[in-house]
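Thread title: Can someone regenerate the structure for this chain?

I was given the following input by a collaborator and told the matching C-alpha cells would be attached. They weren't. Posting the sequence so someone can regenerate them.
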Amino acid sequence: MSLELTGVQVRIAAEPPLFQPIDLSVAPGQTATVMGRSGIGKSTLLDAIAGHLAPVFTLDGQVRLDGRDILHLPPEARRIGLMFQDAVLFPHLSVGDNLAFGLSRQTRGRVARRSAVDAALTQAGLSGMYDRDPASLSGGQRSRAALMRTLLAQPSALLLDEPFSKLDVGLRQEIRDFTFQHIRACAIPALLVTHDPQDMAAAGGPPVHLQPVRT
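Best answer:
Regenerated them for you:
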C-alpha cells in the first residue's frame, strides 16, 4: 500500500497555485514530511488528499493509493486516517468506547470488538482504562488513545497535521516514537505536516518542502 502524488497543486479559484507541483511516493510504513512557510497550504494539501477540500479550492494532479486514483472517491471511501494538533476524544464516551467508535466494520460481534479495543488499549499503555472518563487522561495518554482509535479503523494511509506541536519537549519525543512505530507496524504510508525539523528527522521518510509559485 503506497501513496503517490503526481503534479499535485492546490489553487483558489482562478488564482495561481499555492505552491509548486509536488511529486512524491510514500512507501508502506514510511512517513514523509511536508514543511513550508506559514500559509503556503500544508494543511490544505492534507484536506485535498483526504477529500475535505473546501469548495473555494481546486486540486490539480493525481493522488493514488495502492495504484488506485482516489480523487473521485468521497472521503469515507478513501480510507484515510487523520490526526490533528488536538487529540480530541468524545467527552460523552468512555476511553474504551472512544476507541470502539473507530473500529472497522470488518470487526463484528460484541466479543470481537471488545477484544480489539482491549488489545489496542494495552498497546497504548492504557490497559484497564476502558471505563475511564477521557477527561481523566494525561495529554500523552489522550494522544495515544486518539492514535489507536484512528488505527482501529484500519486506514490505508494516515495524514498527520502537526499532531505533536502542543506537547512539551519530553512528551513530544515519546508520542513521536509511539506514532511512527505504529505506522511502521501497520505498514501504511503516512504524510506529516510540521514546522519542527526534529519531527522530520524522527519520521525518517522523504522530506517535501513546499515552494511558492514564481509569478
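The longest strand covers residues 3-12.
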